[in-house]
Description:
By secondary structure, the protein is mainly beta. It has one domain. It has helices spanning about 45-50, 110-115; strands spanning about 1-5, 15-20, 25-30, 60, 70, 85-90, 100-105, 115, 120-125. The protein is globular. The two termini are about 15 Å apart.
Amino acid sequence: MVQMTNYVGEGAYIAVSLIDAKGAYEKTLYVMGSDKKWYPDLKEWNKAYKKKPTNISAVTGASVTGGDRSVTVLDLETAKINKGYKLRFETAVEDNKYYLKDIEIPLTTEGLAAKTEGTGYIRYVRLSAN
């Protein structure tokens, strides 16, 4: 679950990416915001996505506005847990600040169980296994 801060402005675009142990983008797990014209605002994700384009329609949903929350399912490979990977939540809002690392969650047993505070538009992210 992603809980947003009470910011003023348009809906936030959020890219959730799998980052490898060396800090490099590996793949897109989810994008909140479906209008492709705003994807360049998610600067690092967009740069990496353009290098490794894939069909993300199955992992794309609505943007999230200030104060709202979004619940979504992330498909995580268990083989990547406790291997140095991270989940990066990159955020952008039209005519507002961009956050490369609004949240980075270590892909560890402990990291997946914790509530993680954001540094920008995201108040916190809480993950749970299903």
